[in-house]
Structure formats: C-alpha cells, structure tokens
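Handout, section B. The chain below has 177 residues.
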Amino acid sequence: MTDRLTPEHRSWNMGRIRGKNTKPEIIVRSILHRMGYRFRIDRRDLPGRPDLVLPKYHAALFVHGCFWHRHTGCSNASTPKTRQSFWKKKFEENVSRDNKNTQLLKDAGWKVIVVWECEVKKDPHALSRRLDEALGKRWSDTDSYSIPNRNELFKAAEKRSDYVTFSRAKPKTIKNE
C-alpha cells in the first residue's frame, strides 16, 4: 500500500511526534501522584534519561511507545511497509540503546521499570497495582487509590499535554526572508 501523504506532509507529521510530555507519560505521572509517590522528571544525569525517577525508591521509570521501542507481541509494534531496511535499522538501534541504558542503570544500583504505551491505554488500575508491586508495595490495598477510569485519564492528559491533532491538510510552508 502506498502512502497517501506527500513526503513533505509525512515529514511534517513525523516531526510532531514528541519525546516528552506525551499522553501516556502524563497518565503514568498522574497515577503515581494519586498513589502518593513523588518523582522527578527527565533526569539528564542518568543513562537513557528516564522519563520518571523516584529517588526515594532508587527507581527509574521509562514510558515506552510500543511502535518505537518494539514491544514484543504487541499489535502496535508493526513495521512500515516502505523503506523496511531503514526502519529495521532504526528499531534495532532503539532496542539496543534501551538495553544498554537499562543495564547501565541496573549496574549503578537503580531499579528499572518499563511501562508500555498499550499498558497505559488498557487498564490504569492494573498498571497502578503493577507499579506498586515494582516499587515495593507500600500499601496492602491498592484499590483504595482514587484512580479515575481510562477515559477520564485521557481527557485530562489531552488538556495537560500540548496535544496536536494530525490532519491531512497541507502543512504551512515557512519562507526564508
């Protein structure tokens, strides 16, 4: 199947994909905060620059997109049909870098937690239980957290992130003056 967008428009769309303050990341931050955990965002001094760092628990948390970081067995981790050699190399580099950073963090004594985008979308309550267990399960009853349902979390995340909708309209061209 050929791409329905022009190369310029595809480039424009791809340029809008952000690396931080994504909806899944904001949702994970909201869940952790409601659970009583406190964290730091984007610690540049740690390998891989984790999305969230919980210093009290010596834990680094990454919120990975299934497509970019190749979540094994996930339907969102599909490979584009065009330029397959480029994408294969790109994905291999991403996975290799993720593994290297994870190992460096573990060697430095950090607990590494990876949260996948699809996991955030499916069930926030199951995610909260998994995070609690990974961080040492501070409370015995994780159901007591006031975690809203997934629709409410996504609405709140859209408001808090600079959510950009992608249209098929031609991108604005900027002329050099």
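Note. Residues 14-137 form a domain with the Endonuclease; Chain A fold (CATH 3.40.960.10). Compare this with the example in section A.
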